[in-house]
Amino acid sequence: MDVSPPNDDAQTKLWNGPAGRAWVDTQQALDQMFQPFEELLVEEVSVSSRGHVLDVGCGTGSTTLAIARRLAGQGRCTGIDISDPMIRAAWVRAEREHTPASFICANAQTHAFAPAGFDMIVSRFGVMFFDDPVRAFANLRRAASDDAELRFIAWRSAAENPFMTTAERAAAPLLPQLPARRPDAPGQFAFADRRRVQRILEEGGWAEIDVRQIDVACTLPEKELVPYLSRLGPVGLALHAADDRSRSQVIATVRAAFEPYVHADEVRFTAACWMVGARAPRAR
Ligand SMILES: C[S@@+](CC[C@H](N)C(=O)[O-])C[C@H]1O[C@@H](n2cnc3c(N)ncnc32)[C@H](O)[C@@H]1O
Hints:
Elements: E1 2-3, H1 10-16, H2 18-25, H3 27-33, H4 35-48, E2 52-56, H5 62-71, E3 76-81, H6 84-96, E4 102-105, E5 118-124, H7 133-143, E6 144-155, H8 162-171, H9 194-203, E7 207-221, H10 225-231, H11 233-240, H12 244-257, E8 262-263, E9 266-279
Parallel strand pairs: 1-4, 2-3, 2-5, 3-4, 5-6
Antiparallel strand pairs: 6-9, 7-9, 8-9
Helix pairs in contact: 2-6, 4-5, 8-12, 10-11
The chain binds S-adenosylmethionine (SAM).
């Protein structure tokens, strides 16, 4: 297991702390919710790659493992993530299901990848957290072979994804200290602006950039809604430090705000995202 200690920045702390633990604990529900995106990426790999695929910000490894299964015998997949608890969970899954994927615990922005080692680079929501995205995509370009494809999925704006901000809007009167979302800052909606995505990739050395709008139907079992809203996102983080009384009050208020998304035993929403494609140009 390759576990080199990542830097000490805010995202490292976050993903090695409460956010990483929450993703590990709610892994099954999140993987169900984001399964359609995994299928889209596996499909992209099937049509274009046979070599070594890198999954950036792989988390607990669901997409890495799905790609490794699809490539079986014709290629392999490596996941990289900055979160030690998430990478450990990914290794456990790989061993449990006997899927030959490998994982690296490191910061993809700065990790010293072998040059030109990957024939395709993918990510499901794992590339919006870099503090210097141009440097990160330039590092990934060096890790990619000439002509390698880049395919990643990122969120469009918060305004286009009301499900994702329901909790913080409902909890705001009870949790006035909730941090405001800062456009373009590392985080879930950092790639909302398609021109910014285009510029980051160009400056990072990628070509044939294609930023395509996708709107994807997602579901979550209703019984997973309270664990989801009380553990994840800004409200989940704030509740980590809250006393029992305010915690219960916030959870009741936020759960009520999600009611429009609940249909019997299922929660349904549409995820407004980008499917981003690019190619590593041949070195001159
Ligand atoms: C929203 S989660 C997505 C996880 C996974 N791709 C999935 O879909 O289940 C974002 C992931 O990016 C990882 N991450 C954030 N910054 C990173 C960095 N600089 N290098 C590598 N991984 C990073 C986090 O630890 C986290 O696992």
